């Protein structure tokens, strides 16, 4: 993929997958980012740090990482000497992952190849040119919905999964067990919707009181989940599109751009404009009291 010239847009193709091209022009810390679906990220410029409770992953330009769904990380996107972070990412429809697994698991057994399921993340330090070609072809298949038939698009995304198996790794669609995880997937399907607690409770076949009690046992609330889903959605739009902030606010469920900006700052510690390069003062710290320069 050629850096610096790709249109900033998030593309999604039903039943197949989603892809995006990320550009960021300020180094920032994103805390507790939840990756809801399995995802492949390729760093094109700059570098990337992901930290979980278990380990830290550091990626340079030209390297990639495959992340299992339902994982949470603190993330820092580091700028290149040219003052730019750039990456692309690709995710698969869960049915496509399941279909691929059912076919190639049998092939792995027959060939005695030991393929391990990715439970957290797998860094890919050396990406063969043919593997990168497959990634680019998969992203093109998601973008070109008129020119590339569904069958070919599915084949291209499955080819990337096959490349992962050559790295002795595979993705799985593990059932989401926590209520908060199930609700994240539900809310993520329409972040800008005016969600009401009774409707959400009905979706998960619970009374509203039972819903709130179960969420309290998982140390969260419905309003906290909804805000986090909306802010994560907005973050993706800020990184991967050129949409005005007022439009992003509306698509994230906020009619007031100023109210959206307050929510965004509360969640991440900096305003939405920071994602696109509006820099803070050198001595300014986040609302959590941590300067991103001191995190590494």
Automatic annotation (TrEMBL):
Cellular component, GO annotation: cytosol
Give the InterPro entries listed for this entry: ExsA-like_N (IPR054015), Homeodomain-like_sf (IPR009057), HTH_AraC (IPR018060), HTH_AraC-typ_CS (IPR018062)
Protein's UniProt name: Helix-turn-helix domain-containing protein
- Keyword Zinc-finger part of the UniProt annotation: no
User: Where are the stretches annotated Disordered?
Assistant: 273-296
Gene3D superfamilies in UniProt: Homeodomain-like
Tell me yes or no: is Transcription among this UniProt entry's keywords: yes
Question: This protein's superkingdom?
Answer: Bacteria
PANTHER family from the entry? HTH-TYPE TRANSCRIPTIONAL REGULATOR GADX
Q: Which GO terms describe its molecular function?
A: DNA-binding transcription factor activity; transcription cis-regulatory region binding
Segments spanning the bilayer are none
The record, for SUPFAM superfamilies, names: Homeodomain-like
Indicate the segments forming the HTH araC/xylS-type domain, all copies: 181-278
Q: Which Pfam families match?
A: ExsA_N, HTH_18
Q: What species is this protein from?
A: Glaciimonas soli
Keywords in UniProt for this one?
A: DNA-binding, Transcription, Transcription regulation
């Amino acid at each position: 993929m050629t850096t610096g010239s790709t249109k900033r847009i998030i593309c999604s193709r039903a039943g197949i997958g989603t892809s995006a091209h990320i550009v960021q022009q300020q180094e920032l810390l994103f805390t507790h980012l939840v990756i809801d679906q399995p995802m492949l990220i390729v760093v094109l410029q700059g570098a990337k740090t992901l930290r979980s409770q278990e380990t830290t992953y550091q990626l340079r330009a030209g390297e990639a990482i495959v992340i299992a769904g339902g994982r949470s990380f603190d993330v820092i996107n580091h700028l290149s000497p040219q003052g730019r972070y750039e990456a692309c990412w690709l995710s698969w429809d869960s049915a496509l992952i399941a279909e691929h697994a059912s076919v190639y698991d049998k092939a792995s057994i027959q060939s005695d190849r030991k393929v391990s399921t990715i439970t957290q993340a797998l860094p890919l330090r050396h990406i063969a040119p043919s593997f990168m070609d497959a990634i680019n072809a998969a992203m093109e298949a998601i973008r070109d919905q008129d020119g590339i038939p569904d069958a070919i698009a599915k084949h291209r995304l499955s080819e990337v999964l096959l490349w992962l198996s050559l790295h002795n790794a595979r993705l799985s669609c593990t059932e989401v067990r926590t209520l908060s995880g199930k609700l994240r997937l539900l809310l993520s399907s329409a972040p800008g919707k005016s969600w009401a607690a009774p409707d959400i409770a009905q979706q998960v076949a619970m009374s509203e009181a039972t819903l709130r009690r179960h969420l309290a046992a998982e140390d969260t609330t419905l309003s906290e989940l909804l805000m986090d889903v909306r802010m994560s959605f907005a973050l993706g739009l800020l990184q991967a599109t050129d949409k005005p902030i007022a439009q992003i606010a509306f698509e994230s469920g906020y009619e007031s751009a100023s109210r959206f900006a307050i929510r965004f700052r509360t969640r991440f510690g900096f305003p939405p404009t920071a994602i696109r390069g509006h820099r803070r003062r050198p001595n300014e710290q986040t609302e959590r009291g941590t300067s991103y320069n001191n995190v590494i």
